[in-house]
Amino acid sequence: MTVYKIKRIYESPESDDGYRVLVDRLWPRGISKERAALDEWAKDIAPTNELRQWFGHDPEKFVGFMSRYTEELDASSVAATLKQQWQKHPVVTLLYSAKDIEHNQAVVLQQWLER
Q1: Sign for the pseudo-dihedral over CA of 78, 65, 96, 16
Q2: How far is CA 53 from the centre of its chain?
Q3: How far apart, in whole angstroms, are the C-alpha atoms of residue 88 and residue 83?
Q4: How do residues 3-14 score in pLDDT, each as one tens digit?
Q5: What are φ and ψ of residue 27, in 5° steps?
Q6: CB 112 within 8 A of CB 70
Q7: Where are the alpha helices (DSSP H) in 3-99?
Q8: For the whole prediction, is pTM greater than 0.90?
């Protein structure tokens, strides 16, 4: 069974990160590809631009964001395919750039992947 972890892209890579996936639609500021140490950039699994802009990382909108993003994931064949591919790895670390560690798309994606 795959363990899904979440981590800010600005934190240093560690040996127990397993398969490292950036789940942001936009490349994070100030991070080189080398420093990111990614195995994959899955921008197509990130929230749509419309949803991302609506949310604006406002914690008061997080419940609505969770619901809408989960609906996007449920309807996405790309998300279903990625979930299947990632299940081949013992550990997958979902990397995000948001400053808020509790209210971001990686939190929602982790819950969706684990259900």
Answers
A1: negative
A2: 16
A3: 9
A4: 999 999 999 999
A5: -70, 135
A6: yes
A7: 33-36, 49-55, 62-75, 77-86
A8: yes
